[in-house]
Amino acid sequence: MNLVELFTKPGTASTIMIICMVAVLGILLGKIRILKIKLGIAGILFSGLLVGHLGAVTDPHVLHFIKEFGLILFVYSIGLEVGPRFLTSLKKNGITINLLATGIVVTGFLVAVAIRFIFDVPIEVITGVMCGAVTNTPSLGAAQQTISDVMASAESMEIVGMGYAVAYPFGIFGIIIAMILIRVIFKIKVNSEEEKYKKELTGMEGKLIAINIEVTNPNLFGKTIEFVTSTCNKDFALSRIERNGEFIAADSEVILQEGDRLYGVSTQERFNNIELQVGKINTTGEREITGRLGVKQVMITNKKIAGKTLKEIGISRRFPVNITRIYRNGSELMPTGEDSIEFGDTVRIVGEKEALPKVASLLGNSVKELSHPNILPIFMGILSGIFIGLIPIHIPGLPAPAKLGLAGGPLLIALILGHKGRIGKLDFYMTPSANLFIRELGIVLFLACVGVSSGKYFIQTLLDEGYIWMLYGVAITFLPLIIFGVIARLLKLNYLSICGLLSGSMTDPPALEFANSIAPVQAQSTAYATVYPLVMFLRVLLAQVLVLLFS
To answer: Is 381 left (phi over 0), alpha (psi -120 to 50) or beta?
Structure first.
């Protein structure tokens, strides 16, 4: 095959080259600022629309495979990342945000029904527009399958696809605009929301402060350190003891004496509790640890203990050392006995120098192990997720069964595996860098393929009557998001969680990428994953219901 044939005949090589070219152009386009806003990852969608409009020749089967595989990689990595905190989030406000997400889905459906009645829009058009306006590809597939079964018309299926392509771009921008408007309406300060989320996640407010406490409470004289740490477990992380001018390790069996000073870390908000229970507090700042004691930063790479709580591991009971800090995803946490340590965490250990290497060996501290991508569990998880996604869910009255699909199934399995961490001897932990790479690769492939496949008839459809379809899509996208975004804020939900809720209610990966760029925390991804399974099911179901109501 010569160079001309490579770009004029559909094939695997030409399709892959075009996808790579779209990715490069889209990433560069996404870096351009327009009114202080960058397109970000959505730039790939628009570069794909442009390349598709210019007549890029691709193999439809290869393009479809790359698109679906990219989507699977993206949602699977999201599920593994938020899995360890998914159930905790579900218990805190999961019911609330799922109800809000359901409201967004149902309201969008009702808006589509209203447009159908008011403007007498053909069912093929309004179905495609609704699927595109909510950026949900599985619902498009379900709707096309239902139309094929009920109407047996290839032309109708093409019209559904064009309606989807016309409404899809604003579907992405509509979510982003809704996020920005809610931020403006309520005068939200992102830094404040980030701090509030960190407080909810870590249970503490503000930064950790190095302090020492003069033991003046006579009730503690003669008590063991284990008794003190269990009493002040959530207020203070102990590192060492000063006695008669010398530092000693805070071994759990050490008996407290009058005049002892306890060194460690806490936060300003907890000082009053500590002074009532232990004694007077002095802030010491970071001091060098000398003598028999030392300090060591250790990475958690032992997969056998990852996911266990500090109490279960019992480091302080087994060695004359204490963990004084946990560093996780850019956050600094004050450790308590109930806190679990995760693969990839870094902990700060203070204690006798001779014990530090033994503790480091127990916890792992292996750079090589941390950099290992752990490939086998990734493909095992995706395989299981695809099987789950293909299971038909039969609902009376619908000619075609609903399914979680190739996105919902892998996400559900990833959430379970991320929460469990380990099944038997097989662990499912993934390093943050590997997870980020898979997520970015997945969303780039997905958007590039969507853009290229939609670009061929995009301009022509817009010039004919597509601009009216686009206005229908604007209403379906925007009204539910603004209404329930405002309601969510009035319910005092964290703004970052609201952004994840809006992205998840539209099952929209590019919007989630934009939301994640607002602040470097996991509130957005957690909310997204919390609502995604229910929303995916409702989107697929209601797309089929819309066809059946008016066909």
So the answer is: alpha
